[in-house]
Each structure stands twice: as structure tokens, then as C-alpha cells.
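Teaching note: in complex prediction, the entire set of molecules is handled at once rather than each chain in isolation. The prompt given to students was simply: 'Predict the structure of this complex.' The entities are:
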Amino acid sequence: MAEFFRYISLYRLFLVQRLKALMEYRVNFIIGAASTIFLQASSILAIWVVMQKVPDLNGWNYDEILLVYGLITLAKSINHMFADNLWTLGRVYIRSGGFDRFLVRPINPLFHLLADRFCQDGVGNFLVGVALVIKASIALDLAWTPLKLLALIVGVLSGGVIFIALNLLTCVTSFWIVDSVPVTRLVFDNHLFAQYPLTIYPKAINVLLTWIVPYGLASFYPASYLLDRDLGYLTWLAPLVAAFLLFIAYRAWEVGLKHYNSTGT
Amino acid sequence: MIRRFLREPPKYFAILSMVPKVFMAYQVWFWVSIVLNAIGMAILYFFWRAVYGSTEVIAGLTLNTTLTYILFAQVFRPLTDIDLIFEFGYGLREGGILHLLLRPINFQAMYYFQNLGTLGVQMVLQIPMALVATFVFGLKWHTDPAVWGAFLVSALLGFTALFFFVYCVACLTFYTTEVWGLGVLFFGMSIFLSGGLVPLAMMPDWLQAVVLAIPFSQALAVPINILTGITPLSEVPRIWLSQGLWVLGLWLVSNLVFKVAIRKVTVQGG
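The expected output is the structure of the full assembly:
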């Protein structure tokens, strides 16, 4: 437990340093955070335009779709803010030899990698996610029972862990192939399916998004529960799947670390 | 050297094994980008099928016309990929832009032809996407040479107009020195404003006016409308004229902007 608190306080130190560096270039910080808002605005505007023309999308109205979209954006923002550095493991750290620095310090190298860079662009995603969920909640007049609130929190946090675990699992390949970004993108981009209700897709894509790259557990399933379209045990599956994926990903990281040999740079 | 190699062979084998890894990375990206684009295409395909689930015609467009429009927009997406913001930004940061500015050739023309060449290469690389659109999602291609001719001229004019517009925005990096956020912001705007996600005909009048007033749509929505048949051939001369005026106007503005912005250039390194 003492170790846990040590890491929490270490993270705080890393974060303060990172924020100091970011605040040196305030305009850049704001443009960075705002950039993701614009990126999301494009897709949301497209949904808005289309939903002005049709009453629903396979039985889901505009605000219900916004809820699904908002939940996946929130889950993604957790990964974006706190684990974005996984993307750069191969390109920035392994290729340059900078990763060796992590191995000679008395802290967990994975923790060091994650804490090295808090990503401000994720703040934009977080704000968009919060705004969409609040907007949808008001428009749909959602009745927030304690259980629904729990489903929301569990869904978003588990979703964030699913994002991080899948990115970790794929970024580990950089220990062998150096640049893991293509592999990570191959998995990561599947989350785009989960921006919409899974019912619009064929069965195979539903299976993919529920059981193989389970981004659907971060959006469609909790949204269905909040909208009283109960999908049974699948609603509460997210934390178990998230924990399982994180366990597998961390094991893979340990194996990768054993195989790591520096590039010699 | 030989003695050292014999003593520490694993180190040198590690360096040797790096070369194919770096080389393979480029090959891998080519194939991965096909899958990523196919994912994007699949999402749009199923989304639009669901949209048409309860209605046959939206804003005068049938499901088939809309899908043709959306799939063509995906295939011809490189028309809006003009990468000047990062080019200028990193050129400033690393100092390379200084050498380019000092060369005895027209700075803007050099970048125009560089981007035109890139467009050509990107379109060749889009062939797999065109095949996916055709054989997986059922895209039907026009066979009328007049339509293709009209499309190609419109696409070139639209691309040129957009180039001059992006050139103006890239000059902002002379002031901000910020690249990543500006680039992402611009990319985010281009996705919707190019008309690649939703056909212009479906937008409310005010939004259509906004989208048409920003040149992203000139490079994608306008030519794709011709290719899809949403814009009849009889209207093409008027569209060419309008795009020609865009090119002329933005060429003048971009030169003016560059003249003012160049005074602010501060090369950070190099």
C-alpha cells in the first residue's frame, strides 16, 4: 500500500513538471486541447445534419446516439490524457535509445513511460464527452438512480481501462518491431464503430466489438442500460473484461521487456 | 574490430536486425492504412444504410446515390490532403525553410508542384481502396468520358484553390510556431467542411452556404457531385468558372498574406 501511495505522489510530481512545461507555451496548450474538440465537432455536426432529416437510426434518436458517442469519447479521453505515451514507445523511446533511461531508474518502467507525458489534447475529448452526456441526459430526461450512476461510472472507467489495455497490448510489439503504431492503429481504430449504436452493424461486427476488441462495452452497453434497454449481464461485463485485458496486456509487457535489446543508438 | 565483434556478437546482431525492422515499417504502413480506411468506409456504409432504414429519399438523394457519393469521397479523399502546415512548421523549427526561401525559384510554385506530385502518388496508393469500395461495398463507376473529364478539371481547380487557402493558413505558423494543434484543428475542420461525411444537399441552407464559402468543399464535394451525377453536366461550365475565380482570388490573397507573414519568420534552429 505504501508503494501505491509512493507512485501516486510520484505521478503528481511528474504531472506538475509536465504542466509547467506546457504552461511555457500557453497558446499551444489551448490550441492542443481545442484541436480535439474541433475533430469531434466534425463528426457530431454530421450526425446532427443527418438526424434533422430522419427521425431515428435503427430505433435510436439523435440524443440517444449522442449518449453513445459521449460515453465512448469519455472512455477514450482517459486513455488520451493518461496513457497517450504508449503510442510513442517505439518511435520516440526505443528507436532513440531513450527507453534505456527508464530501465536504470528505481521505478516501474511502464509507470515511468505513462507518467512521462500527460497529454493535454485528451482534455478536449474529456470536455466533449462530458458535454455530450449532460446534453443527452437533459434532452432525454434520464432518471438518474444510484444504480444508473454506478453503471455510468463503471462503464466509463472500464472503457478507459479497455482502451489502455488494448493500446498496451499492441504497443508491446515495439519491443520486437520498433514501430508499433501501425499495429496499435489496427486495433484502436475499431473504437470508431462504437461511436454509434451497435445495432446498425451486422452480427459479425457486434461480436467483434463485444468480445474481441470490446470497445462496445464502453459505449453501447452502458448507454442501453441508461436508456432502460437492458441487455442483461452484458451491461456489467465491462469491469471484468477490462481487468482481464489489463492483466494480459501487463503480462505481455513483462515478456516484451525481457526481450528488449536496445537499438544501440 | 574483429576481436571486439567476436567478444560481443549479440550487440552487433541487434544492430543488424534493426535494418529490416525499419525497412518493413514502411511496407507495413501501406497495408495497415488500407485496413484503416476500410474500417472508416465500413462505418460510413452501415451508418448510411441505417439512415435510409425508414425512408427512401432524403433531400432528393436515394440510398444508392448517397452511398456512391460517400464512397467516391473516401476514394478521392487525398484531394483535400495538403500538408503545408506541418511542412512550414517543421521547416521553421529545424531551419530547413531558410534554404528553401533562399533558392532562386518561386517558393509557392515549388510547394504547389510538390503537393500535386504527392496527390498523384496518393491517388495511385488509393487503388486498393477503390477496389474495396467496388468489390466489397458495391461502388458503381461511371463510364461516360464527359463526366470524367468534367470531374477531373473540377478536381484540379478545387485542389488548386484549396492549396492557396492552406498556404494562407500555413503562413500562420510564422506567427504561432505551433504546428500540431493547428494541424489537427485544420484537419478536423476539413473532414466536415469538405463534404466527405454528408452530401451538401442534405445540409440546411445556412450550413450549405458556410461550407461552400470555405474552399475545402471546392476540392471534394463539388467535383464528387459531378461524378455522382448530383450536379448535371449542363451546370459544369458555371462551376468551372466559379472554381476559376476561387483559384484567382485565393492566389492573390495567399501572395499578400505571405508577403506580410514572411517579415515575422524566426527560424528556431538548423
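Point out the following to students. Chain A has a mean pLDDT of 92. Chain A is about 70% helix and 0% strand.
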